Write a sequence for this structure.
């Protein structure tokens, strides 16, 4: 029995020694993109959305998931990232999306009624949409997000447009008016 325990301990130590790698290198993997979400995103591009961005916003190259991106230069020098994404249908709904954003800035989730009570309803050429001001004063993080559902003639949501900017609480409160004007300008161009 002692010989077996000794052998097992020896094997265990050898496995640990050879499985630990002291190299400080990073392994990079390339994964092929699936066409399902990308093609849906590209179909949204075919919907021909247009908007008017302020002159001081710097347009960045869009990514696979973003229809557009901007760097917004705040008066205090902070650079805020603004993103526009479009997904088919209701994209999971208001409650799940806003609570995911709340968790990103360390806020607790709320139920749909609480979220809607804290939102403001705006109107654009696409119809009514919602703006959510998410501020966490404990860590000075904030996000302003708009959810713009786009309906067909039978009142079904064809796609949902999300506009988000994230930064410090003070900076975002200073940029809120620009954000609201930008969201109001979003429209179908055809």
């Amino acid at each position: 029995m002692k010989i077996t325990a000794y052998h097992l301990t020896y094997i265990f130590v050898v496995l640990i020694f050879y499985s630990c790698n002291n190299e400080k290198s990073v392994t990079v993997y390339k994964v092929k993109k699936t066409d399902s979400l990308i093609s849906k995103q590209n179909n949204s591009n075919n919907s021909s959305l247009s908007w008017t961005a302020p002159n001081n916003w710097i347009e960045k190259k869009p990514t696979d998931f973003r229809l557009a991106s901007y760097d917004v230069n705040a008066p205090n020098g902070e650079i805020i990232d603004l993103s526009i994404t479009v997904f088919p249908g209701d994209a999971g709904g208001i409650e799940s999306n806003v609570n995911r954003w709340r968790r990103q800035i360390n806020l607790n989730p709320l139920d749909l009624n609480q979220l809607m009570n804290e939102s403001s309803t705006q109107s654009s050429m696409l119809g009514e949409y919602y703006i959510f001001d998410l501020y966490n004063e404990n860590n000075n993080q904030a996000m302003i997000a708009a959810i713009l559902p786009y309906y067909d003639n039978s009142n079904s949501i064809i796609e949902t447009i999300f506009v988000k900017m994230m930064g410090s609480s003070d900076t975002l409160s200073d940029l809120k008016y620009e954000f609201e004007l930008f969201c109001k300008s979003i429209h179908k161009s055809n």
